[in-house]
Amino acid sequence: MLNDAFQHNHEQHDLNNNINSTYTQYELEMIKKYKSEVSYEELEIYKDKNLFQFQFVDQLKVKNLVLYGCFSLVFDKVPVNIVQLTVNECKLKSILGIQFMTNLKRLDLSNNLLADIQSLNLLVQLQHLHVNENKLVNIQPLSTLKQLQSLSLANNRIIDLQPIKQLRRLLSLDLSHNSIQSVLCLQNLTLLQSLNLSFNNIHPAQLPYPPFKL
């Protein structure tokens, strides 16, 4: 019995030591502080270690959230009420859960490992979307985003642009560094002011109209 009690106390001591070694005293105080509702106009978080305090928050309100290098990011832990979201260089392979952030108007998912963006199709309030430097081939989910004004999909593996042809409010479109061969379907985008098609496999006869950037 004495040995059992000693072992229990020893394990509890190790646990406390682990907690204290994981977080500094300042961080432990922040955990208590952030246990209630927290509101921000803009919040920037760099690296996973700075995410820790928000896992203890009961309710986080923020309009513009910027996440950089947060490799353990799970979207169902991100506030659904945000209007702007930037998630760069987080090695994202999935954005499952982002479909519930229906207030989003500006979204940047550049420099990740995304091949599937199906979860974007419900974000119908989006006006600005950047998904540069990923592994996109299929962009069909974008066809429902009729409010888009700027769209940047540079440095992916895109071939088919048909899903974009109904996005008639587009003013700016960057499709550079892809595998596109035909852009005739873009003729419907009569409001375009900027179009970047550089570094693709497009034959001049397939170009819709000048004088856009090639």
UniProtKB/TrEMBL annotation:
GO terms for molecular function: kinase activity. Keywords: Kinase, Leucine-rich repeat, Repeat, Transferase. The keyword Kinase applies. This is CotH kinase family protein. It comes from Hexamita inflata. The lineage of its organism: Eukaryota, Metamonada, Diplomonadida, Hexamitidae, Hexamitinae.
